[in-house]
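RECORD TYPE: protein structure
NAME: SRCR domain-containing protein
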Amino acid sequence: MRFVSMVDALANFFIPSSLAVATISLVNGSNRCEGRVEIWYSGHWGTVCDDGWDISDAQVVCRQLGCGSAVAATSSASFGQGSGSIYLDDVNCTGSEASLFQCSHDGWGIHKCFHHEDAGVVCSDATISLVNGSNRCEGRVEIWHSGRWGTVCDDYWDLSDAQVVCRQLGCGSAVAAKSNASFGQGSGSIYLDDVTCTGSESSLFQCGHRGWGRHNCGHGEDAGVVCSVGYTISLVNGRNRCEGRVEISHSRGRGTVCDDSWDLSDAQVVCRQLGCGSAVAATSSASFGQGSGSIYLDDVNCTGSESSLFQCGHRGWGRHNCGHGEDAGVVCSDATISLVNGSNRCEGRVEIWRSGGWGTVCDDNWDLSDAQVVCRQLGCGSAVAATSSAFFGQGSGSIYLDDVNCTGSESSLFQCGHRGWGRHNCGHGEDAGVFNQAETGSCGGLKLTE
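PREDICTED:
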């Protein structure tokens, strides 16, 4: 039997098919993005019946209100009973509609319900938070629902799940997925268990799980997250910022990365993250000296396409079987050429990194055009001087280039003609350099040859 009140019948008769003048809101929740679904029309509020009410219907309401994604479609007046009209029943949305009024239903004001069947919605906005961390981007995962905060169980909790939380909160990439109430135990309800995200979702509530409020956990298993906001990565003990030992810094100190499985794909991500070009070498065995303090990452496994080292797989934050004698390092392409023994980074003996070591350039035919390319490559302005005869002291190891012949327009010294890689008739007494006169503000400043 269908119950149609006089008010409902009049509403059904007078309301235009477009419902252009009707509005929707959520009431009796903790914020505007959860509550009983109510529709305002022609000076009256009315409700929606929960017959057939599901997550697809809730999704449309959340979209219509600008409240993110649907977390739950509630029934049985979970946000209290409304009064007055019941405007919609047997609502059937696909989930793609922009408005609840575009969904099919039994007819405006036609229903077989009472207000104890009023439908409700919980949307994702303002429903998730990280607590008990050192900043808003780390801590125990807590969810606001039905006027209270609750937690997430750590069963199957991993970096993909943490990645979604960090994205949802605008906290960068996930650094760690924490378990066993590492940020302390919460209280009240445990809302989610067996969370399974792919890592690409925009909200934790789009991920699979056991069911809202269904779990087999205690608060000793509360899940946590550490996001990358507040964490920085740098290369130390190299000749410039684009080579060195990999170090991670945050408010509580600095730590290193273990070289287990450390390879060029991992180094590639570090170089990209630092804006240092491409990876030239992934070094191991503390080749840039041993760090101190914590070892944060071990068994790092990047594909090489990630934008941050924190997006790569690893053993787990702080979990390792290493000592600092295994600290990982990186040499990036922007560090493959350097000027050393000068008074600043834009003057000195020309040195090149190759095959795990630094070597020099012979001064045969070395001139201002060659120096111009080095200065351009290093972002040091225009060349004014090219030096010879080891003006900045003799290097050691290999002599990589001889008879260099640049036009001066190349973007890299390695685009210039030369005798052949490693082929030369020189000694280190002929090492080439570039000179800088400080007041010129340029790379070079005075023609010096001997």
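COMMENT: Residues 1-20, 437-441, 445-450 have pLDDT under 50 and may be disordered.
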